[in-house]
Amino acid sequence: MEIFSSIDFDFSDEYFDSGFSSFTLEDNYRYMKECLLGEKILPRYRLHNVNKKLIHIAGVLTNESGDVCALYETVLGHIDMKSRKTSEMQNDFLNNLLLIMKDNTKHPINMELRLKIKDLT
Which residue(s) pair with 119 in the sheet? Predict the structure, then answer.
C-alpha cells in the first residue's frame, strides 16, 4: 500500500514570473529510528492537504525493511511577491494541487501528523 509518493507541483518559471512563490510557514521533524551508515534509505512525500492559500506536505524516510525512520511536515504559504503576503491561488493552479492531493491521499497515514490547515469545505 503506497501512502507516500513522489510529487511534482509544477512550480514552473512561468509561475514564478507571474509574481507568485511559496514560503515555508512552519516545519515539524520527528526522528523515530536511527539510520545506519550504508543502509538504503528511501524518501517518500505526499501532498496531504491544500486550501486556497496553504499547502501541507508530509514526507518520510524509510529503511529497507519499510520502517519509518523520520517524518517531516511542512506548511507552505502561497505568496504574492508584490505584496509579500499570502494570497489565494489561481483556480488552475489550485485545481492541479487538488488532483495531486486526491491521488496522494487515497490511503490513510497510520501516524499522527502534527501540523494542520483548514480544509476547503
Answer: none
What is the fold, at CATH topology level, of the domain defined by 13-104? Thiol Ester Dehydrase; Chain A (3.10.129)
Domain ranges of the chain: 13-104
Dihedral of the alpha carbons of 8, 12, 18, 24, in degrees to the nearest 10:
50
As beta bridge partners, residue 27 has 74
Nearest to residue 33, comparing CAs of 11, 76, 64, 9? 64
Task: pLDDT tens for the chain, 121 residues: list them.
Answer: 445 444 556 677 888 888 999 999 999 999 999 999 999 999 988 999 999 999 999 999 999 998 999 999 999 999 999 999 999 999 989 999 999 999 888 877 777 899 999 987 5
